[in-house]
Design brief:
The chain is built from 19 helices and 18 strands. It is α+β, with helices and mostly antiparallel strands. The chain has 3 domains: 232 residues, Bira Bifunctional Protein, Domain 2 (BirA Bifunctional Protein, domain 2), CATH 3.30.930; 116 residues, no CATH class; 144 residues, Threonyl-trna Synthetase, Chain A, domain 2 (Threonyl-tRNA Synthetase, Chain A, domain 2). Helix 8 packs antiparallel against helix 9, helix 8 packs across helix 10 and helix 8 packs across helix 12. It is globular and about 75 Å long. The structure holds serine. The site of serine has 10 residues, from strand 8 and strand 9.
């Protein structure tokens, strides 16, 4: 049986409710482009908001990390991965959590005890040493324990948010005899699971206790599958092997001859399939998530060229395999199959038009470059031939030439309206960091959604939103540019509602009742059976995790500052509250 199913079944048998994977693009969280950890969509609940599914949760979550794109090509890195996680929201704490992990590893996965070791928090900055976890491990017969400091055994996503000491579980991945002493720096020991005891909240003002003591655990599905199957190259595990073989069969080179290019194609097409298949409707573009997608596809195309793949629809052959493989767990892939295949091909055709010329130009440029390719040339390759920077870096590296990447990035920023976070690619605390202003914008998106339905078309649907303390952005389905009159009417309507001082109310109900009552939502299949519904008088009713203001009078004056196309059939409004 698949590790995912074993994991879910085990925790369900321990009273956990399975929650669906959230979309790869976080809803209403501007601090990050993609979900990068299983806990991320759960931040409001770790902060104390009651979760509609209760206090024991389990899931597998689609995660995307693209901050180290250049590492892709080795044996262990992936841009997309699935994280298995179980949570206690103020329910059980260290003892049960460690016992569950131990039972799952030794009884379900049948890992011998002597191949397991753990690290626990040694205490630092006034937070005490976690002797309790160490005792629990010892009582279970695990004596290979290393005590480490904050750097290793205190977990926080970014700079602010829920956090706490963790205990990490290691597995001895080698046929050598297991040493008596556990040295976490010995790379035969690999981390397989991380149990975080989230009882604190950290921000600029320091550390405070959370209202409840939570547990957040995370296990990387790809890595643990490879370990259990005894392969030391993740791409040779059952997660990948058929995809690798397929790419090999399309290529002029074998996996042995060029593993990097084959892995890059496998990884980048899989991530692209998941981004395109996500309900957020991301398409290749030059900004935000769309640009990450474009870079992934283009890099895969360049490696397909390196492998001399000749098939005219290689990208779709691979994408189809991936969709088939994952559709049981992620039905959205099948639902959006046509979009996925179509967009991949469109992007391939678009890039193929400039790739050849760009490569020729590159060859010309490079003959006159001594050691470092300057930012202007790198930018020219981007601007004229659509070469993402990592592609230029990769091509240059093959000739032992470096690229002024920082210089390029500055230039790039000056030319692009990239989101604040796109460039840093950092995950900072999600909704946990919501300021009052962001909460106001959140409520304003509901009013805007309702106003667009009244003024433009009752079939307008939200396609996404992004909020910062400075402004809100709202994407919606619409086939035309809004006229000045429409924009003015929308603005007036929202401001009327604000002036009417309407109460915002929240109610828990079954998903079925919520839908029957006409509540609106973006991704219906992503919601649990019991949902929270926010209503603004009888103007708006939406399934939503909050938070919101209590009364519309708190919002101030609403003003649209821009209306533009976002992608085909989707318009984007940027607005502010004054
Ligand atoms: N949040 C922790 C991690 O990502 C445990 O889930 O490792």
């Amino acid at each position: 049986m698949n590790l995912k199913d074993l994991y879910i079944d085990f925790f369900v048998s321990k009273g956990h409710k399975q929650i669906p994977s959230a979309p790869v693009v976080p809803e209403n969280d501007p601090s990050v482009l993609f979900n990068t950890a299983g806990m991320q969509p759960l931040i409001p609940y770790l902060m104390g908001q009651p979760h509609p599914y209760g206090t024991r949760l389990v899931d597998y979550q689609k995660c995307i990390r693209t901050n180290d794109l250049e590492s892709i090509g080795d044996k262990t890195h992936h841009t997309f991965f699935e994280m298995l996680g179980n949570w206690s929201l103020g329910d059980y704490f260290k003892k049960e959590s460690i016992n569950y992990s131990f039972e799952f590893l030794t009884k379900v996965l049948n890992i011998p005890i002597n191949k397991l070791a753990v690290t626990v928090f040694n205490g630092e900055d006034g937070i005490p040493k976690d002797t309790e976890s160490a005792e629990i491990w010892k009582n279970l017969g695990i004596n290979k324990i290393a005590y480490l400091g904050k750097e290793d055994n205190f977990w926080i996503a970014g700079e602010a948010g829920p956090c706490g000491p963790d205990t990490e579980i290691f597995y001895f991945r080698s046929d050598d005899e297991v040493p008596d002493n556990f040295d976490p720096n010995d790379d035969r020991w690999v981390e397989i699971w991380n149990n975080v005891f989230m009882q604190y909240y950290k921000d600029n003002n320091g550390i405070t206790e959370l209202p409840k003591k939570n547990v957040d655990t995370g296990m990387g599905y790809e890595r643990v599958t490879a370990i259990l199957e005894g392969v030391n190259d993740n791409y040779l595990s059952s997660v990948w092997i058929d995809i690798i073989k397929k790419i090999e069969s399309l290529s002029k080179f074998s996996y042995e001859e060029n593993p990097e290019s084959i892995r890059i194609i496998a990884d980048h097409i899989r991530t692209s399939v998941f981004i395109l298949g996500d309900e957020a409707g991301i398409k290749p573009s030059n900004t935000d998530q769309g640009y990450i997608l474009r870079r992934l596809i283009r890099r895969a195309i360049r490696h397909a060229k390196k492998l001399e793949i000749e098939s005219s629809d290689w990208e779709n052959i691979i994408a189809n395999m991936i969709i088939d493989k994952y559709k049981k767990y992620y039905s959205e892939l099948n639902k959006n199959k046509d979009i996925i295949l179509d967009e991949l091909t469109k992007e391939k055709n678009k890039f193929n038009k400039t790739l050849e010329k760009g490569l020729r130009e590159f060859e010309k440029i490079i003959t006159n470059v001594d050691k470092v390719l300057n930012k202007d040339l790198a930018f020219k390759l981007y601007d004229t031939y659509g070469f993402p920077i990592e592609l230029t870096v990769e091509l240059a590296k093959e000739k032992n030439i470096e690229v002024d990447v920082n210089g390029f990035k500055e230039k790039f920023k000056a030319h692009q309206e990239l989101s604040r976070t796109a460039s840093s690619g950092k995950f900072k605390g999600g909704l946990a960091g919501d300021s009052d202003k962001e909460i106001k914008y959140h409520t304003a998106t509901h009013l805007l959604n309702a106003a667009l339905k009244q003024v433009v078309d009752k079939n307008v649907h939200q396609k996404g939103s992004n909020i910062t303390a400075e402004r809100m952005r709202f994407d919606f389905s619409c086939d035309h540019k809004l006229s000045d009159e429409e924009k003015q009417k929308v603005e007036e309507l929202v401001n009327n509602w604000i002036n009417q001082k309407i109460d915002v109310t929240v109610k828990e109900m079954s998903k079925e009742d919520a839908i029957k009552s006409g509540a609106e939502c973006m991704f219906i299949e992503k919601y649990p059976d019991i949902v929270t519904v926010y209503s603004i008088g009888d103007i708006s009713k939406e399934l939503c995790g909050g938070p919101h203001v209590k009364n519309t009078s708190e919002l101030g004056k609403f003003k649209i500052i821009k209306e533009e196309a976002s992608s085909a059939g989707v318009r984007r409004i940027k607005a502010i509250l004054e």
